[in-house]
């Protein structure tokens, strides 16, 4: 057990995202003022990959959007406490927010060129895709395919072989459309890179999936409001953490070096930066490069885990439809796009050809949303607004129904006035969106990443560096609740180390 001597042990939490704030809140409520607690954040806001904003009269989420299952979710619990389930007043109406009408229902699936796809074919493909996903989740997918992508493709080929009539391109395009949706959930550029075995370990909380009327950012705001004034320090970009492996001489505490040349001592550092920042840190060779480095370098097993695990890129593109007043309802449908691999409409840009849909953020909204993943998500970070708007217009033209429905099409497939997009890939504080278990990696790598340092042997200064953050949670990675639980896990490690009473939130 750790000794609380005359000097308060100092804990520095690196990062004020969900994991860092959960750890800080837990330590604060359980240890009172026994520990000296500081959160250092590179940016100028809390929340990290949780970032609520506004666009065209609506509340939007640039990052985390859903609570994935509310039954038993600690994030749902926090959302209730934070008042995030209550909408803000907006001139006597609730402030509009993403999916305030729940999950999208009855999307319109259109094939490239403008033909509405036969509903019975879509329900067949949808049932096939759900069945294949159930097999993956239950572990019945077998060992023949290493990746989710390979398994899904085999399933689709068997389906085609079992049918007496040949498939037309729209059937393959519809299957691909579901695959593109799956890329968004998992953040992988190519489902062939997503490990099949790890998918069955992944757990969701049961119950409804919801978005938050008051905005996701209410949750980090609530957690930080429980910390003493000044506990969070902004603009503190950690570039290097010095620590002492077991067996080395001296009992100096950890030294945390900042990009601006400053330095701070700590007995314990809880590192919550993204896997992208850790990956970049493995390659840091020059001052000022993004990424967090360690001296001595992290043990080889941990470095290997960081290298092997996947960190994907997902970006959201919000588009405001031209015309109409703020309160007018738009007839734009939830449009799902079945792209023709032969590039039927040449003007549709390549960077949207693996996006599943363009849809209003809630029924009747004049704000549309499309999700981009992997290479295309990186591409939309680099383009200027006009180029993106031109590409969206070409896409909408390519999916608008034939001339006989031109009047209706004009109203429904409107033009875009302006856009707003996230840029998680180029932001040096994130360098991506969320983690996944890549082929060649496994849940063991997530456990390895979560191990504190120094490991093994008796150390004069135990638990110098602890690791939290979504990527360190073996079964609930890539989510806000995974991040939250990882922060609590590392706070509890210190609480136990100092023999403090365990406590709740
Ligand atoms: C587009 C998008 C959509 C998503 N959708 C959902 C969803 O619907 N539901 C869901 O549950 N999850 C979703 N997620 C995932 C979820 O947002 C994350 O898993 C979670 O917020 C991660 O929290 P974290 O504390 O682990 O990391 P972060 O939020 O990344 O926090 C780490 C903090 O560390 C700071 N930092 C980085 N480097 C340094 C440094 N060198 N020095 C000091 N500070 C540093 C960062 O600025 C950041 O504030 C989404 C994410 C994205 C990007």
UniProtKB/TrEMBL annotation:
Sample GO molecular function, one term: spermine oxidase activity
Lineage top rank: taxon:
Eukaryota
Q: Which GO terms describe its cellular component?
A: cytoplasm
Q: Which Pfam families match?
A: Amino_oxidase
Enumerate the subcellular locations listed in this protein's record, separating them with semicolons. Cytoplasm
- Residue stretches making up the Amine oxidase domain: 18-495
**Keyword vocabulary terms for this entry:** Cytoplasm, FAD, Flavoprotein, Oxidoreductase, Transit peptide
List the InterPro entries hit by this protein, alphabetically.
Answer: Amino_oxidase, FAD/NAD-bd_sf, Flavin_monoamine_oxidase
Instruction: Show the Gene3D superfamilies listed in the entry.
Output: 3.90.660.10, FAD/NAD(P)-binding domain (3.50.50.60)
Q: What is this protein called?
A: Putative polyamine oxidase 5
Q: Which gene encodes it?
A: PAO5
């Amino acid at each position: 057990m750790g000794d609380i001597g005359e000097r308060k042990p100092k804990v520095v939490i690196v990062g004020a995202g969900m994991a860092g704030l959960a750890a800080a809140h837990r330590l604060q409520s359980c240890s009172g003022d026994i520990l000296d607690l500081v959160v250092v954040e590179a940016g100028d806001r809390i929340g990290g990959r949780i970032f609520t904003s506004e666009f065209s009269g609506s509340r939007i989420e640039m990052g985390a959007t859903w609570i994935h299952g509310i039954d038993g979710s600690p994030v749902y619990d926090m959302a209730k406490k934070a008042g995030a389930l209550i909408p803000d007043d907006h001139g006597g109406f609730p402030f509009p927010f993403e999916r305030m009408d729940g999950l999208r229902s009855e999307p319109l699936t259109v094939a490239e060129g403008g033909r509405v796809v036969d509903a019975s074919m879509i329900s067949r493909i949808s049932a096939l895709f759900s069945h294949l996903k159930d097999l993956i989740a239950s572990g019945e997918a077998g060992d023949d395919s290493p990746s989710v992508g390979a398994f899904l493709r085999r399933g689709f080929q068997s389906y085609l072989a079992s049918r007496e009539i040949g498939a037309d391109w729209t059937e393959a395009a519809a299957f691909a459309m579901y695959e593109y949706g799956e890329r968004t959930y998992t953040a992988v550029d190519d489902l062939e890179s997503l490990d099949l075995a790890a998918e069955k370990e992944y757990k969701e909380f049961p119950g409804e999936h919801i978005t938050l009327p008051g905005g996701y950012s209410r949750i980090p705001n609530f957690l930080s409001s429980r910390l003493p004034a000044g506990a969070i320090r902004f603009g503190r970009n950690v570039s290097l953490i010095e620590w002492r492996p077991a067996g080395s001489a001296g009992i100096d505490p950890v030294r945390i070096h900042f990009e601006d040349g400053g330095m701070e001592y700590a007995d314990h550092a809880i590192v919550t930066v993204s896997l992208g920042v850790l990956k970049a840190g493995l390659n840091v060779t020059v001052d000022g490069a993004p990424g967090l480095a360690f001296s001595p370098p992290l043990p080889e097993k941990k470095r290997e885990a960081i290298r092997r695990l996947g960190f994907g890129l997902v970006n959201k593109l919000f588009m405001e439809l031209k015309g109409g007043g703020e309160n007018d309802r738009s007839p734009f449908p939830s449009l799902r796009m079945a792209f023709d691999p032969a590039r039927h409409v040449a003007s549709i840009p390549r960077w949207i050809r693996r996006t599943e849909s363009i849809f209003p953020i809630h029924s009747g909204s004049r704000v549309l949303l499309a999700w981009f993943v992997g290479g295309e998500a990186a591409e939309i970070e680099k383009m200027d607004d006009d180029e993106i708007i031109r590409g969206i217009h070409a896409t909408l033209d390519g999916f608008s129904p034939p001339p006989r429905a031109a009047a209706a099409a004009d109203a429904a497939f409107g033009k875009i006035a302006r856009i707003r997009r996230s840029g998680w890939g180029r932001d040096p504080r994130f360098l991506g969106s969320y983690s996944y278990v890549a082929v060649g990696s496994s849940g063991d790598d997530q456990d390895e990443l979560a191990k504190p340092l120094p490991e093994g042997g008796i150390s004069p200064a135990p638990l110098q560096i602890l690791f939290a953050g979504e990527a360190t949670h073996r079964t609930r990675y890539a989510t806000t609740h995974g991040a939250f639980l990882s922060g609590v896990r590392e706070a509890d490690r210190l609480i136990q180390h100092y023999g403090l009473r365990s406590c709740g939130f």
